[in-house]
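Workshop exercise sheet. Pairs work together: one partner reads the sequence aloud, the other fills in the structure field after running the prediction. Swap roles for the next sheet.
Pair: D.N. / O.F.
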Amino acid sequence: MSEQRAVILVSGGLDSATVLAMARAEGYACYTLSFDYGQRNRAELQAAERVSASLGDVEHKVVRLNLDSIGGSALTDAAIDVPESLTEGIPVTYVPARNTIFLSIGLGWAEVLGAQDIFIGVNAVDYSGYPDCRPEYIAAFETMSNLATRIGVEGRKTTIHTPLMKLGKGEIIRAGLDLGLDYSLTVSCYQASVEGFACGKCDSCRLRRQGFVDAGVKDPTRYI
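Structure field:
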């Protein structure tokens, strides 16, 4: 296999789009993976497809799950309100075990593709308190990956890439713009409309808006 393949987890948001642009710039053949997991924000799936196509993915796959069947998050349970102010501790927008589930499926696809590289847009600076966005979690998952897979047993190491881990939102945006990324294609809002308009009030919207301020560029987000 001459090309260096990588699986990129793409949610349709600002961070994962930037990671995809970075992976492409590094010369990877990018296989993008999104999840229809019962999230309230359906517009992000369309955004993920747009972003993947615009950045020249080899293949875009959507895996369907039913995390809404167990609930426990404002992103999957309509009975839990999306907060519009910062809260102490882990917020109700945390989806139980989401990154573990997503990375596990990404790992499986990577094995099928013969890819040893997986990219994910987690961030320890603007991570909203999610426990599965911390560097120690990623290190633990990578260790597990190389214990639990055939390619790991055969001595071919899987690497989980987190290029945004130590970057602020403004730095992330500047990096993406330098790579020609069109952020108007992305949707970050936790409760975006079907058409992709952002509420401008949720935690994700506030972080995104401040990021464009910090980057010193116009915010292309469509707000309600």
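Discussion prompt: The chain has a mean pLDDT of 95. What would you look at next?
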